[in-house]
Design brief:
- The protein has helices at about 10-20, 45-55, 70-75, 80-90, 105-110, 125-135, 155-160, 200-205, 275-290, 305-325, and strands at about 5, 25-30, 35-40, 65, 95-100, 115-120, 135-140, 165-170, 180-185, 190-195, 210, 235, 250, 265, 295-300.
- By secondary structure, the protein is an alpha/beta fold.
- It folds into 2 domains: about 5-210, Alpha-Beta Complex (DHBP synthase); about 235-320, Rossmann fold.
- An 11-stranded mixed sheet has the order 1-8-2-3-7-4-6-5-9-10-11, with helices on both faces.
- Helix 1 crosses helix 6 (about 125-135).
- The structure holds threonylcarbamoyladenylate and magnesium ion (MG).
- Magnesium ion binds next to loops.
Amino acid sequence: MKTEILNGLEPASIERAVMALREGDVVAFPTETVYGLGADAMNSVSVAKVFEIKKRPRFDPLIIHIGQKEWLGTFTRKLPTEADKLIARFWPGPLTIILEKHPVVPDIVTAGLRTVAVRMPSHPVALNLINALGRPIAAPSANPFGYMSPTNAGHVARMFEGRLSLVLDGGASTFGLESTIVSIQGGRTFVHRHGAISVEELIDVVGMVYEKNKDGVIDSPGQLPYHYAPHKPLTIISGLEEIRTAASSLLAFRTPPKTPLSRHMKILSPAGDLREAAANFFSYLIELDRDDIDIIYAEQVPEAGLGKAMMERLKKAAKKRRVITR
Ligand code: TXA
Ligand code: MG
């Protein structure tokens, strides 16, 4: 199977993708966070194909992407006040909300949970596609299980060569990090996954937020410690002097004061801007994960705003090695 990349801004491409989705195929599409591997959320067999293509070792609930806020009434049950406020502020956009599911949502989408994760993306290609299909698209990030999320069409095609027929190209994802996932319980807003909407922005709307996994309970399988990992080992460093070998890649946060020892380097944001850094984050890490190196060094990112989400992903990538070598 050849993987075709079509320009998602052309109406004919959307038509082709909608036809494929209606026939039960899986289509990769751009969102403002990362690319998604989409299936018609109402078609259990198509959704099963997503798991198969992604090689997820077990079913893990998927986010349904809706085209209009009004669709919530069809696919979910109660809408807590806090969710309403968050939706008013952040939709369409990179916030996913876990809500009580309506029985029409197939169990394979939610892995049997009574809740469903929903978001309305802001990327025009994603919105056009969902609205042209006329129902939600269930989609995880378009990466093989355990690997990093792709933020451009070329990376998706490379990751799924031979296993995926169509990728809609919508350019580089502007946020470059997955959506922030929250749930509301007893009027409290819990963060399940840090992402493109910062905790500070959430607090601005709901006053206070809680961390979901402080007690070690894994509520979103995305919280497994080895998610988002490159193939090569990754070490977080706070200064260039910690680089031990030239056979390495360096993911620098900002322009380093001197030339590093590493063979390859990418600078997330020359001036140290967190938003620019986040937009480049996964695509640079994927490019630095090369055969001719032994290790990836990642410079520490300030843990505020979007930096928190990036550090969460770097720490998980760094942990993977420890898990494997133990
Ligand atoms: O930005 C994003 O969120 C991207 C784009 C494509 O929308 N999607 C994405 O999907 O990152 P995925 O499947 O890679 O991550 C979704 C996370 C998973 O960790 C899953 O376990 C969690 O959301 N999740 C989904 N439904 C859930 C539910 N009902 N309860 C708790 N966690 C849920
Ligand atoms: Mg993912």
